[in-house]
Specification:
The chain is an alpha/beta fold. The protein folds into 2 domains: 203 residues, Glycogen Phosphorylase B (Rossmann fold, 3-Layer(aba) Sandwich), CATH 3.40.50; 180 residues, Rossmann fold (3-Layer(aba) Sandwich). The chain is built from 15 helices and 12 strands. The chain has a 6-stranded parallel sheet, with helices on one face. Strands 9-8-7-10-11-12 form a 6-stranded parallel sheet, with helices on both faces. Helix 11 crosses helix 14. It binds uridine-5'-diphosphate.
Length: 403
């Protein structure tokens, strides 16, 4: 496990000194993170590295995961899609399922930490147990155009928190509680992002029967409609008319995402008979994801909605040229024609992939710019600093804190 001082060569001594200083001010406070899955998806990805580092800095931090059954996760996935603006009704029975599950967790969980940090809607109702302690609601979803019924329902709980956190300025809604704008981050030293020896990369390609005899275009994501894997295959088919290349569509599942299998089945159907498409259902394995990203010539994240899209920062950190949907938190990471290419459609995606495969020098420059952009904005150290400032600000409400 990397230690906090291991980050000095990447971000500089003063950044680490600041973290130690802030952590000192939090001595004696207990922080509890709560979300709905320990593995799979961006939230778990971040907490897996953030919690040990906060602990190492001396901040008394722990992470709990709520319990839920199939019915509950069906509802929360529906909420997730609805918050991203998907049309459709959420029934009163579904709302009741959500509340009942919350009650069960309320009975079982110790929520007495000084700061309870709740991630996303799944555990949002726990705030009913709020006492004198501070509660933060961290929204990782693009809520710029939420389904009004779901948003209103959640709003009653959000209002009980002391503060909220959103990832991008465009998501910021009208709320009665203070809002903070804090972008997510990646850990440059995690197994997902550290440098790998070429033998490791080759071994992973061999494991999945991929021969690097032609350029590799890759999208790595949960199999989710909002990640548009089918659109990626459509774009690839267009590219392949002109350039001999191969596509990797790799993804795993998340325990709180019940739609994965259905989307995977559709992807398999769509990929049938299309040469050079590798659809990989992967076990959760950070080294393998890292290796596939490193082996790629272009990385795609053709999302239709996206809170942030950690996969993009992961790719940029590896200096890879990226083609990504111009949605949600993605433009924070990709400035068009500077740190990647943005697209709005299958045709646009195909055009951008072709451009990058045809112009390696241009692609290289975008990747290099992207890496520096990530170094300056989306590394875990910046995220730790902003979270600790947020924690401290809860005890200094009279002071204005700008994050
Ligand atoms: N991921 C992974 N294995 C997979 C698919 C995704 O490890 O098969 C990781 C990916 O590398 C990233 C995270 O899961 O770190 C997904 O975060 P992102 O913000 O891109 O999307 P989310 O799943 O949270 O919508």
């Amino acid at each position: 496990m990397p230690k906090i001082d291991d980050y000095i060569p990447i971000v500089g001594q003063s950044v680490i000194d600041d973290l130690r200083l802030l952590a000192d001010h939090l001595k004696g406070k207990r922080i509890q993170h709560i979300n709905s899955t320990a593995v799979g998806g961006g939230v778990a990805e971040i907490l897996n590295r953030m919690v040990p580092l906060l602990k190492e800095l001396g901040v008394n931090t722990h992470w709990d995961v709520i319990k839920g059954g199939e019915k509950f996760y069906d509802v929360t996935k529906k909420f997730h899609n609805a918050l991203h603006g998907k049309e459709g009704d959420v029934s009163n029975e579904e709302l009741a399922t959500f509340l009942e599950n919350g009650e069960r967790n309320l009975k079982e969980m110790d929520l007495s930490a000084d700061i309870v940090f709740v991630h996303d809607p799944q555990p949002i109702t726990l705030v009913k147990k709020k006492k004198e302690n501070k509660w933060i609601w961290r929204c990782h979803v693009d809520v710029s155009r939420p389904n009004p019924k779901v948003w209103e329902f959640l709003g009653k709980f959000i209002a009980q928190y002391d503060a909220s956190v959103f990832s991008a300025p465009g998501f910021s809604p009208q709320l009665s509680i203070p809002q903070f704008l804090i972008a997510p981050s990646i850990d440059p030293l995690s197994d997902k992002n550290k440098e790998l020896p070429p033998e490791t990369i080759e071994a992973v390609l061999r494991k999945y029967n991929i021969v690097k005899d032609k350029p590799i275009v890759t999208q790595i994501s949960r199999f989710d409609y909002l990640k548009d894997p089918v659109g990626v295959i459509e774009a690839f088919k267009q590219v392949r008319k002109y350039i001999d290349c191969q596509l990797i569509l790799a993804g795993g599942t998340a325990s709180d995402d019940p739609e994965g299998q259905k989307v995977l089945d559709e992807v398999m159907e769509k990929a049938k008979g299309v040469p050079d498409v590798h659809v990989l259902l992967m076990p959760h394995n950070d080294i393998e994801v890292n290796a596939l990203q490193c082996a790629s010539d272009v990385i795609v994240q053709k999302s239709i909605k996206e809170g942030f899209g950690l996969t993009i920062s992961e790719a940029l950190w590896k200096s890879k040229p990226v083609v990504a949907g111009n949605v949600g938190g993605i433009p924070l990471q990709v400035t068009h024609k500077y740190s990647g290419l943005l697209c709005h459609s299958v045709d646009g995606c195909a055009f951008a992939i072709k451009q990058l495969l045809n112009s390696p020098a241009y692609a290289k420059k975008l990747g290099e710019n992207g890496r520096e952009h990530v170094r300056n904005n989306f590394l875990l150290t910046r995220h730790l600093k902003e979270y600790m400032l947020l924690f401290l600000s809860l005890y200094h409400k009279e002071d204005v804190v700008y994050l």
